[in-house]
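Hello forum,

I keep getting stuck at the same step: I have a sequence, I want structure tokens, and every attempt I make locally crashes halfway through. Rather than fight my setup again tonight, could one of you with a working pipeline run this one for me? It's a single chain of 408 residues.
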Amino acid sequence: MKSLMVSSERIHDLSDKTGTSMEDECHDLVLRVYDTIIDPSLWPSVLDRFVDLVGAQGSIVFDWDDREPDSRLVAPFFSGFYDAEILATYLEKCAHLEARDQEIVHANTGANDRIDVIDDTLLAATTDDLKRQEHVQKLARFGIFRRAAGILSKDNRRLSLFTVQLDAARQPLDDRERAIMATVLPHFAKALDLGLPMRQLAEKHRGVLAAIDRLGIGLCLLDGRGYIVADNAEFERQRDDYPVFRVGNRGELLFTSGKGRVQFDRLMSHARNHGRFGARPRKEAIDTGQDSMLCIEISPLYASEEIGSATFDGFLVSSTDTSLPLRCDTSPIRDAFDLTDAELSVVESISEGLTNPEIAERRGRAVSTINNQVKSILAKSDCANRTQLVRLMLRYGASFLRDAPDRS
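Reply #2:
Ran it on my machine without issues. Output:
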């Protein structure tokens, strides 16, 4: 088995034939990746640039769509090599084979935060056996043979299933290409994760920023100096209700806690400071230093037609009030983290915004019992606290949209 084990620190030693620093190439790609949060339509161009960097033929991001009674394998984002109609037909006919391959990738993926990219040597005993597989033969018609895949979300392994496809004439991924992937894929994971609310909004509205008051999470755009350019009604409400951040005299966003400010400044200083938690980007949330129930996250925002600027060079801050009731599908959470029936009941109560004492009163249990059950849930889901747990739950069929509030 080959996994993505090459350290991203090696990337500065690698250059292309023109002498252009590969570190610069990767940095520029990373900035473009985060622009997809505001504008999901940018993903094909981002994947095209990624494909060029690693010398691949194509790249696809898969999701399992569980909104219908029968789950469907869909490809929300793919590089320009693919025709959308042909790809949809392939998924309809070969979803069961892709699902089998994904199970093999799951079984060989570590439980840590690292993104493991597994090549196709695990999918069949020999190269000849691999060539005989039905879906491999279909891909071969388009000049594709070798593939590699990885899980970009270990919170919900049915989302953000990343694949890269190689030309039939070339060799498997080499160390240089793996170093590039080790550098950029954690940023792919974070952008896909933070982009989920905006993707829901984009399905309903063409002008995303014009409709941000429809989001149930707080959203704030900052310029490169940290000054507020725009925000939504939910972010304003959170500023009023929680002593976490405030607006300075010059319109800058300020954190009241020193620890939160340090993290905020670090994430604003360089793009490489993002994506540190690989396939679990929720762990990068800014620590407010208070029991505020806010999950605050920040990402670079280089350019966006939505903003009307070719180069914005600012930041996007999103803030989720984890004390509010949320709509999510809790049954897959039980299966994903092997929860007991009692623990699932606690998760359902947490999704309603109940505190531990309130859950204890509802269920007729001692608060200490509920505390222990919550600790068990946190351990099983690799969450440090309830805020991280709610953040994880939001990746299970949650709706981020609501009726637009009256800001008057």
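The radius of gyration is 22 Å. If your local run keeps crashing, start a new thread with the error log.
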